[in-house]
Design brief:
33% of the residues lie in helices and 29% in strands. It has helices at 4-38, 68-73, 152-155, 183-186, 202-205, 242-265, 269-289, and strands at residues 49-54, 57-65, 79-81, 85-92, 94-104, 115-125, 129-130, 135-140, 165-167, 175-180, 195-201, 214-218, 231-237. The strands form two sheets. Strands 2, 3, 4, 5, 7, 8, 9, 11 and 12 form a nine-stranded antiparallel sheet that branches. The protein is elongated, with a radius of gyration of 31 Å.
Length: 293
């Protein structure tokens, strides 16, 4: 038979055990969830690196015909020029539509884990012909052949999404111009092989019949006058501790969660406290290594 004081003491012990079990289980569950959440967090990147990558090949692929729609929609094109070339449209004698293709072989030398921060395409040009306002538009050239061939003209027809653009400016002389790529254009940078881009006019893309000359001359790798390959200015960063944070830390967090739960259910404050404390430290370290914004 127990005295009233002994009964109260026993109830307190039971309540204390239940409290520890509840606390340990809740902390353990939170650590499990925290460990899983680390799998989806973006990893903090190292300081950005900027490099310049020169084009290794380029060509103008064009089509001409007395009927604009025929010239514009040609599957095979009419000519190819590999000593620099034009991009745009003009109706001199017959309708001409030209698209300028550029290949950058050395993007394959970028690190496989490079995180592209920004890209600028630099072109050396002559004063553009502007009958009416028009834009130079960068489009995806990954469909183009290697080496570039005349029939690539038709392959570029469906490439209409802008990866970056700039209005043609009649005030330009023989100079370098810069076209910042947007996020779509940045996604075309191939770190595992060559990157291929093309320049089209927005009026070519919209299939607008030219009333006058709206085109621009772009210097190239093999330009007969002044070879001036296009240049990609790429700023990229690299992740820090990618595998360590995404793979090791979730396992560590799960282990401490199990430790906290076992300690709580076995009535071992030492085990539970170790699980809670080291789990918290592990999570704080993981959060320092990742960019949670």
């Amino acid at each position: 038979m127990t005295t009233p004081g002994e009964g109260n003491a026993g109830s307190k012990v039971i309540l204390k055990r239940r409290y520890y079990r509840w606390l340990g289980t809740m902390v353990g569950a939170l650590y499990f969830l925290a460990g899983i959440s680390l799998l989806g967090l973006p990893v903090m990147a190292a300081t950005g690196t900027t490099i310049e990558i020169s084009a290794t090949a380029d060509a103008e692929v064009g089509s001409e015909n007395a009927v604009y729609a025929t010239a514009h929609d040609s599957a095979s094109g009419s000519y190819i020029i590999v000593i620099g070339g034009r991009a745009g449209q003009w109706p001199i004698g017959v309708y001409n539509v030209s698209r300028f293709v550029i290949r950058f072989e050395e993007t394959a030398n970028l690190p496989d884990d490079a995180i592209i921060q920004s890209v600028v395409l630099k072109l050396r040009i002559d004063t553009p012909d502007i009958n009416a306002p028009w834009d130079l538009v960068v489009v995806d050239g990954s469909v183009v052949s290697n080496p570039i061939v005349q029939s690539d003209f038709g392959l570029l027809l469906p490439q209409k999404v802008s990866g970056g653009s700039i209005p043609a400016d009649g005030g330009w002389g023989t100079e370098w111009i810069s076209i910042p790529l947007n996020e779509t254009g940045e996604s075309w940078i191939n770190v595992e092989g060559p990157t291929q881009l093309a320049i089209r006019s927005n009026k070519d893309i919209s299939k607008t019949i030219p009333a006058g000359d709206d085109s621009i001359y772009i210097y190239g790798v093999n330009d007969f006058a002044t070879p001036a390959p296009a240049v990609l200015v790429v700023n990229y960063s690299q992740p820090i501790g990618n595998q360590f944070v995404r793979v090791v830390f979730p396992v560590v967090m799960a282990s401490f969660a199990i430790l906290a739960i076992i300690g709580a259910w076995k009535g071992s404050p030492v085990l539970m406290i170790n699980g809670v404390v080291w789990g918290l430290i592990g999570y704080i370290v993981a959060m320092v290594l990742v960019d949670s914004i």
